[in-house]
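User: Please fill in residues for this 207-position structure.
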């Protein structure tokens, strides 16, 4: 929390004239979504600045562009919370709701934030959880009580009994996209597979 707020006070030079959000970042999207996208944590100068996860950073550029190509979003990019972005059939959240130093949350930060994602999943009842990166994959396994934990890998799938399918992707971080570990066709394949799973009707009935 202290680091998150210090970043918001000191700011990055490119955003010096902006007011940073500097608080926990909630999930957002379609409350009736069949696809739940789970990331790691808000970026220090992305979601921690804009108040909306994946908004205003390079990872979000990749994610929103892919969602747009698949028809889940009305525009291919999002720079700030009031820019007109609308998501259809998708909810986006992070396993950790505050920006952590070095993008590496501590175990206690992960555990403290887990109830927020758990409540979203209880209310939304998605058919599939798209886990962006191993941290999100492991967090989803904890949320759903999956043991032993299935192995993470790009396009890995794990069905759950009477619950959502877990679907994994490499995280669209610059480390992965700049090196070619994750390409646009690879991310698009995950998003399209998520739609296929949702269309198959693998979904927990709403309460």
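Assistant: Residues filled in for all 207 positions:
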């Amino acid at each position: 929390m202290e680091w998150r707020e210090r970043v918001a006070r000191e700011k990055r030079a490119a955003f010096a004239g902006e007011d940073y959000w500097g608080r926990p970042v909630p999930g957002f999207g379609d409350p009736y979504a069949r696809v739940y996208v789970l990331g790691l944590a808000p970026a220090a100068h992305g979601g921690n600045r804009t108040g909306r996860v994946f908004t205003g950073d390079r990872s979000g550029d990749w994610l929103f562009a892919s969602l747009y190509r698949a028809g889940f979003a009305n525009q291919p990019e999002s720079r700030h919370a009031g820019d007109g972005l609308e998501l259809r059939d998708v909810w986006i959240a992070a396993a950790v709701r505050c920006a952590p130093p070095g993008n590496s949350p501590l175990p206690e930060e992960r555990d403290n934030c887990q109830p927020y994602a758990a409540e979203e999943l209880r209310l939304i009842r998605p058919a599939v959880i798209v886990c962006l990166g191993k941290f999100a994959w492991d967090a989803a396994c904890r949320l759903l009580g999956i043991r032993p934990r299935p192995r993470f890998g790009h396009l890995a799938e794990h069905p759950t009994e009477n619950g959502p399918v877990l679907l994994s992707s490499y995280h669209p971080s610059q480390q992965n996209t700049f090196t070619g570990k994750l390409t646009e066709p690879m991310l698009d394949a995950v998003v399209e597979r998520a739609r296929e799973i949702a269309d198959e009707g693998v979904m927990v009935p709403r309460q």
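For context: The longest strand covers residues 35-39.
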